[in-house]
């Protein structure tokens, strides 16, 4: 074999362009930059491998336009990306599920529902499969350098990675679907208005993006594994695997989104933009700001007493009760206690009980 010749025999009538093969590196740079901006610094190992493929051999380059000796670098970058992907993604999903167990399965009640057991099962699968896949990737050839060095592959022992790649993609897709569905029953059983439950459900339902990425990644894995022109079919597989990891980082941050929207005021702006604000909300805000609502009274409570703040709530001045049956008694002691509760539906900060 001529090391300076094409890595694959071109189709009839096609002349290899080995020195400057046509490519679509502009697409690769755009996708990699967009994903890196979402979760920069978290998976630079995988990004390093994908960036390396820009220079050797380039994205969407036919294999017959690549020198055979350049396939060493290509296979090395593919090997690196596979290892980093198989480490980063399981760790992301374990992080997601542990956080959700802390939120939705408090201690002492974790074994009462399917949610905690479902999370535990997915965590077990992710940890065991992640370790197994990483070990298999590193033992696919003996000696180890034969994984990417094509000059010694003829004398080495290697096994086909196709089944392992399909199994990995299938495990990740099933896990993504499980992570999408697991919190939904818990969310819809929360004691809050249906609008709030729907909002929380939609936020956690954004894991659908990860399911889409995993599904397409599985499809591209099958296509890539069966293709003769593997260099040409590699970019879609790399892009969707990168998108799947990016979605994982996004899902990790989901619990922080409602707090960010509330503190920045973006949530109210989004509601008004979508037309969700109503006259009732406006009147409620006016009621709380004009000095008559519980929020207003609560804010004034530090500088006043309960009696002068809630002077209207004095049942002893407006009616007689059984306590006056003993009005003339000379007994010493507590003859009556009165407990007045003032509540309105809302947050825990808006509930006051005055004895």
Automatic annotation (TrEMBL):
**Domain (Rhodopsin): residue spans on this chain:** 38-262
Q: What's the chief localization of this chain?
A: membrane
Region Disordered: start and end of each range? Answer: 281-302
The source's domain of life comes to Eukaryota
Q: Which UniProt keywords apply?
A: Membrane, Transmembrane, Transmembrane helix
Show the stretches that span the lipid bilayer.
27-55, 76-94, 114-137, 198-218, 238-261
A GO cellular component annotation here is: membrane
What does the record list as coiled-coil region(s)? none
Q: Could you say which protein family the record assigns here? A: Belongs to the SAT4 family.
Protein name, per record: Rhodopsin domain-containing protein
Q: Tell me which species this is from.
A: Aspergillus sclerotialis
């Amino acid at each position: 074999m001529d090391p300076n010749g094409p890595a694959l025999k071109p189709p009839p009538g096609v002349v290899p362009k080995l020195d400057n093969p046509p490519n679509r590196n502009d697409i690769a740079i755009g996708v990699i930059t967009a994903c890196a901006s979402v979760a920069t610094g978290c998976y630079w190992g995988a990004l390093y491998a994908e960036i390396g493929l820009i220079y050797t051999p380039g994205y969407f380059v036919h294999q017959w336009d690549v020198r055979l000796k350049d396939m060493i670098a290509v296979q090395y970058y593919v090997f690196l990306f596979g290892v980093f992907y198989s480490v980063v993604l399981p760790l992301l999903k374990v992080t997601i599920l542990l956080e959700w167990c802390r939120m939705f399965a408090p201690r002492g009640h974790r074994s009462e529902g399917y949610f905690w057991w479902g999370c535990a099962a997915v965590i077990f699968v992710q940890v065991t499969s992640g370790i197994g896949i990483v070990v298999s990737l590193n033992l696919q050839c003996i000696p180890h350098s034969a994984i990417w060095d094509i000059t010694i592959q003829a004398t080495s022992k290697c096994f086909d990675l196709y089944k392992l790649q399909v199994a990995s993609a299938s495990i990740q897709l099933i896990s993504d679907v499980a992570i999408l569905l697991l919190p939904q029953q818990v969310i819809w059983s929360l004691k809050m208005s249906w609008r709030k439950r729907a909002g929380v459900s939609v936020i956690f339902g954004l894991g659908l993006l990860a399911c889409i990425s995993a599904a397409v990644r599985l499809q591209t894995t099958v296509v890539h594994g069966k293709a003769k022109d593997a260099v040409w079919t590699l970019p879609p597989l790399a892009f969707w695997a990168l998108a799947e990891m990016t979605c994982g980082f996004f899902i990790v941050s989901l619990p922080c989104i409602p707090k960010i929207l509330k503190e920045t005021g973006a949530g109210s702006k989004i509601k008004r933009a979508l037309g969700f604000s109503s006259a009732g909300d406006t009147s409620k805000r006016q009621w709380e700001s004009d000095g008559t609502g519980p929020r207003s009274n609560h804010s004034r409570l530090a500088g006043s007493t309960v009696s002068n703040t809630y002077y209207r709530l004095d049942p002893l001045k407006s009616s007689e009760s059984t306590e006056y049956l003993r009005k003339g008694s000379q007994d010493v002691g507590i003859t009556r206690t009165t407990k007045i509760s003032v509540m309105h539906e809302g947050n825990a900060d808006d509930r006051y009980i005055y004895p």
